[in-house]
Structure formats: structure tokens, C-alpha cells
Amino acid sequence: MAPSIDENDLDRRERVCRAVVQEAGCSALDWFERRAGIAVSLKGPMDYASEADAAVERLVRGRLAEAFPDDAFLGEEEGGETGERVWVLDPVDGTANFVRGITRFCVSLAFVSGTRIELGAISSPATGELYLARRGRGATLNGAPIGCAATTAVERASIEIGWSSRLPYGPYLAAIGRMLAAGIDFRRFGSGAMGLAWVADGRADAYLELHINSWDCLAGILLVEEAGGRVNDFLAGDGLRRGNPVLAAAPGIAERIAELAGVPLQP
User: pLDDT tens across 183-203, in order?
Assistant: First the structure.
């Protein structure tokens, strides 16, 4: 178990987290506005990387190393180390959107101490939205408190389902089939972090992905928890390094969505 962190330490980490994510969002937006000239590579099916991803990750890594030199850092592009206290970053979540000029992309940063996500921040710079959550302190959007939707009937639910090539498509198609049979509307917008943020602010009723990496979802998971939603135990079984399924849902439909998805929720 990680050594306890006092409130003053967490206050400082929260301030740095907010400032760094805002700066990273500005950098990502600058790259977005001149994206026609940037290099893009394909790491795998539907898995893009760009100069912007690498540059934003270097920026955040440097800022956090200056502020917290003893903390570990894990980023999507350049990897890193895990430890008792670790920052986890996706510098541009939604790169496929980003390179096509679609504004649904974001910077996602989380701080994990031991087995708990303590801080999470998501910057959507193209829309001017900054989400922030601190364990036990609630979730905010641009400083205003947010909460999950009050939906209680699954046939009225609108959920987002993400997928990737890390798993066969069969399980995804089966889950989608069960959702459709239950009368649930589903969609996919290409950013797991933003999908989770939308669950936290009530624009979506649930987010499901059967395998996702930690940098894509840790900040969003904490946002949903602090906004009153339900989530699965993502960090179980070395989810930090290896990824896991993620399910986050509004409280009134969470149990039924979990049953249809086949992903158990935390108590």
C-alpha cells in the first residue's frame, strides 16, 4: 500500500494537475489548428499516433518531473514506469478524430496512489471544457459541479460503446446485440476519455469498452465515481499496465447495463 498522502500534498497535486492539463490542452489545440503539416503513423488498426501526441506527452512529463521528481510516470506514447505514486497520461485521446479535423479529442491525466485513483483531469481544448475530479471532493466541469444522468429505464438510455483490435469483434457484437434487444441506443465517438466524461456530466448514460488501456480511462473513471455513477474495478489484475474492461454508468441503470455487458461493477 502506498504511504498516505496528506491533504496539503493533494491540494498541491490538484493545483499542478489542473495547470498542466490546461497547458497541455492549449498545446494540443495549437497542433490541431496546424494539423495539415504534422506526421501521422498507424500503430495498429484504428490506432494512430502523431507528432502532437509525442510533443504533448513530453510537455506533461517534463512539468510533472519538475514538480514531483519522485513520482512515476506512464504515458501512452513513450511508456514509463509504474510505482506507488504514478501519473498516467493520454496526451491526445481521440487521435483518429484529431487528424481528421474532428474536435472530439482531449488530454487525459490521472494520479494514482497505491490502488486508488486520487485525481483525474480531462481537457477538451477545442470546446473549452476542463473536467476535474478529486477523490471525495466531487467532479466539476469548468469549476461547476456535475452529476450523472437520472435515467432509470434502460430503454431510454443512450450509451457509448468503444472497441479496439486488442480483442476479437465477436464479444463486442454480442454485447451490442444484447443492448439493442433491450432497447438501448448506442453510439461511438472515438474517445474513451471523453465518453467517460460525458457519463459524468449526464450527456451519456453509460460507457462500455471490453478492453481499454489505463491512460485512456483512469481520469474518466474517477470523474464518474465522483459524479455519483457506478464503475467496475478497472485496476484489478494489473489493469494499470495491462488494461481491462471499463464500464461506467449512471446509478439508476448501472446494474442492468452491467448484466447486459457482462462486466461486474464495484460494490
Answer: 999 999 999 999 999 999 999
d(CA 101, CA 104): 9
The boundaries of every CATH 3.30.540.10 domain in the chain are: 7-145
Environment class of 69 (CB within 10 Å of its CB; exposed 0-12, middle 13-18, buried 19+):
exposed
**Is 251 in contact with 149 (CB distance < 8 Å)?**
no
CA 186 to chain centre: 19
Superfamily of domain 7-145: Fructose-1,6-Bisphosphatase, subunit A, domain 1 (3.30.540.10)
pTM: 0.94
The whole-angstrom distance between residue 54's C-alpha and the CA centroid of its chain comes to: 18
Backbone angles phi, psi at 120, to 5 degrees: -150, 135
* Residue 92, CA atoms < 13 Å, CB-side half-sphere: 31
Place of cell 506526421: 39
CATH architecture of 154-261: 3-Layer(aba) Sandwich (3.40)
Q: Does residue 261 sit in helix, strand or coil?
A: helix
